[in-house]
């Protein structure tokens, strides 16, 4: 016989009251801090109502690049290793395929370096990652599912954008258990919840005990979401960029 546990009506009422709050918080406006500069973006609910998507761009290639959305420039002359703020762009049809085109900023607009056409849903946030490995360009569309962490927690993810290094691990300095292990080039992790802290993060090649780069004074605050972008590679020393996102009232 299967035992069915019955909850008091008061518990059901409390749970039903909390669920809409949790859902609504994920559609709040966002605030992003990169290299000490802070920007804000509208909520996903507002973007959906206006039939727009929220897009930002990481240029992990050499030299400045332009990113076109459909046939209009969305981000102009984005320097190497730079990360833009979110930009609201028109998306009149749900799950529409929008063509993304990457151009060299130093050249006249002609044949794009690479194009990509993937479905993007209005009212959603995305990061476009431009990469180059062995002379080949790629554009990757990364869903930014910014959902509030559990109370008292921060969230962390990694984007591996350093060509020529197959797999990387991310550790807290001095620890032997990785936060993320075996992260492949061009890939990104899901967010992982961590206790808030100020720490040094160490990046190592897969299975190595030698730190390739240390990311010092990383402040992980409760309620915030962090993205570590690993850069460099192909003869360049590893470096990193920290993106801090927060849903705001």
Tell me the layout of helices and strands.
Elements: H1 9-25, E1 30-34, E2 37-41, H2 44-49, E3 52-59, E4 65-69, E5 72-78, E6 82-83, E7 87-90, E8 96-104, E9 114-120, E10 125-133, E11 136-143, E12 154-160, E13 167-172, E14 180-184, E15 192-194, E16 197-205, E17 213-220, E18 225-233, E19 236-247
Parallel strand pairs: 3-10, 12-18
Antiparallel strand pairs: 1-2, 1-19, 3-6, 3-7, 4-5, 4-8, 8-9, 10-11, 12-15, 13-14, 13-16, 16-17, 18-19
Helix/strand-derived category reads mainly beta
Helix-strand string: HEEHEEEEEEEEEEEEEEEEE
How many alpha or pi helices? 2
CATH topology of the largest domain: Immunoglobulin-like
Radius of gyration: 20 Å
**How does the overall form come out from the CA principal axes?**
globular
Percentage of helical residues? Answer: under 10%
Read across the widest sheet, the strand sequence of neighbours is 2-1-19-18-12-15
Spatial separation of the terminal alpha carbons: 48 Å
DSSP strand tally? 19
Proportion of strand residues:
over 45%
CATH class of the largest domain: Mainly Beta
CATH architecture of the largest domain: Sandwich
The domain tally reads 2
Arithmetic mean pLDDT: 88
Spans of at least 5 consecutive residues whose pLDDT stays below 50 are 1-23
Main β-sheet description: 6 strands, mixed
């Amino acid at each position: 016989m299967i035992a069915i546990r019955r909850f008091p009506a008061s518990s059901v009422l409390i749970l039903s009251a909390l669920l809409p709050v949790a859902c609504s918080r994920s559609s709040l406006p966002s605030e992003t801090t990169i290299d000490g500069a802070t920007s804000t973006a509208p909520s996903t609910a507002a973007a959906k109502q206006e039939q727009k998507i929220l897009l930002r761009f990481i240029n992990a290639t050499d030299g400045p690049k332009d990113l076109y959305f459909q046939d209009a420039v969305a981000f102009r002359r984005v320097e190497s290793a730079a990360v833009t703020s979110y930009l609201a762009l028109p998306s009149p049809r749900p799950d529409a395929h929008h063509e993304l085109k990457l151009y060299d900023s130093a050249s006249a607009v002609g044949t794009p370096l690479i194009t990509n056409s993937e479905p993007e849903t209005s009212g959603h946030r995305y990061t476009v990652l431009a990469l180059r490995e062995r002379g080949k360009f790629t554009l990757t569309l990364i869903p930014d599912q910014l959902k509030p962490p559990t109370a008292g927690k921060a969230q962390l993810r990694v984007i591996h954008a350093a060509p020529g290094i197959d797999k990387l691990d991310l550790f807290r300095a001095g620890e032997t258990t990785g936060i993320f292990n075996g992260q492949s080039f061009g890939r990104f992790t899901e967010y992982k919840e961590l206790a808030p802290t100020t720490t040094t993060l160490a990046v190592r090649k897969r299975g190595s005990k030698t730190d390739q780069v240390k990311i010092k004074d990383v402040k992980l605050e409760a309620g915030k979401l962090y993205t570590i972008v690993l850069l460099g590679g192909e003869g360049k020393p590893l470096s990193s960029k920290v993106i801090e996102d927060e849903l705001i009232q």
